[in-house]
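Lab notebook: predicted structure, single chain.

Context: the supervisor wants predicted structures on file for every construct in the current expression panel, including those that have not yet been purified. This is the next one on the list. No modifications to the sequence; it matches the entry in the shared construct table.
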Amino acid sequence: MDGTKRLHGWAIAGAALLLCGLLAMMAVDRVMRSSAIDDAMASADGNAQILASGLQSELQKFSLVPPVLAEDPDVIALMKGDRSRAAILNRRLATLAEQTQAAVIYLLDADGRTLSSSNHASDDSFIGSVYGFRSYFREAMAQGAATQFALGTVSRRPGLYIARRIGNPGSPLGVVALKVEFDALEKSWRASGRGVFVVDGSGVVLITSNPDWRFHALDPEAATNRNREEDLRALGVARFAPLELSRRYKRTASVPLDTTGHVVAPEGWTMHLLVDPSRYVGGAISRGRLAVALAMAVLVMLGALAFYLRRRREEAREADLARRTDLLRQQLSQANRLATLGQIGAGISHEIRQPVAAMRVFAENGEKLVETGELDRAKGNFAQISRLADRIGTITGELLRFSRRGTRAQRAMPIGQAVDGALLLLNDRIAGLDVEIALPDAEARAIEVVGEHVRLEQVLVNLLQNALDAVGASGRIAIEVATRTDTCLVVVSDDGPGLDQAAMDRLFHPFATTKEDGLGLGLVISQEIMRDLGGDLRAEPSESGARFVMEVPLA
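Prediction complete. Output recorded below exactly as produced.
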């Protein structure tokens, strides 16, 4: 009866705990969702500030060119009627456009006719074309400086025109005009996967990572007060369709472009960075739920501890087991290394026995040669003994270094050192299987990384051991080395049977193995080693065989 009551009480307590956990999880979901959205917005604000500063700096670079050219003696002479300066200025403008990466730089007289241009040698040269109808020309002549975002009359490519008057307000001689195109900038935005666009004061999209958004309006009603004739002439659009964004974009981070002190862009330009908080929200909710689950687990464990207070001896045994488990975890990497040495021990023994046997033969022959007075030939035998001794020293030194316990400080080292060390330890097994090893060239092996020789070598040995198991006799293994940004990539691939998707999914899970006698810890330990060194280890899909990639920080 008492037992039934206790069981009933525990059932009620368990149901209450489950209900509390569900309520707590709902509350945590709301809190974590709100926090994730705030984090996403904060991150987007920072990124938008960086992007806006980059665009602002780029525009300011171009804004300096027209004022300087407007004061140039050759330019002024050309505008005053000295047409002999045109050829010289054509070449100068072409060079300046190439240096600044401006789309085109050209000089217009007081009637808007192009007298000199950086694209003078191209089929669509501006020479002789009249641009007096452009608003940037009219405003620059009247006000001294102007800008206008428009399509090219010939190329129909969008860009920002920056103009500067030549001469004084009372007697203007003409205008210096420069066109900036943003193809490279927009391409970099697209490559980053970000939704970025810049709008003018009416909310019309001008520069964008998505070309389909260009010349659409955030608020079509706000764009109704624009000069439709001018828009049709400059942008090819008289009415602006509303900008339709994907539903996943909940908000935008916007940064006004500061034009104070610089004639860079029309007043009111604003950069927008779209925010997709879903990836932040999903991760935050998962972490929150995990925290609730862990808290519930802790409560359950505390209840179980109270229930089993009388079993102190068993609890002490469990605590001792936990301490031993922790100690074993610390020693796991060392055990894996020593196990690897055990697997290749026979091969290493063979690598040493051969030089020792040869040394004995050379020594006996050398002794006989000395007795017969053939000292030169005896000297050659002793030189061979010295070379073989160096070979044994190299092998035993690598074995000693590989087997040492503990970790050492990371340092700059050529990646080839780790590759050579791993191949030295596995040389006999490679030769016995007659496996072809494709190695990186000397230049790639000389790439310097920041790492620890022994642990990098341990990872390579594990990967090569797996590859040798996979390919068997007469197979092929390739070691490739490449760089990407601040990372060195070491790729180990083979032509074995490869891995199916199920094996790939659980590849780096403890005790998951495709070998009958494997423990499933080698890859887990190797990945932890690489992450501890500031890199990573991953498997990549391959058309044939298996392919593993080590990421190592560059020196």
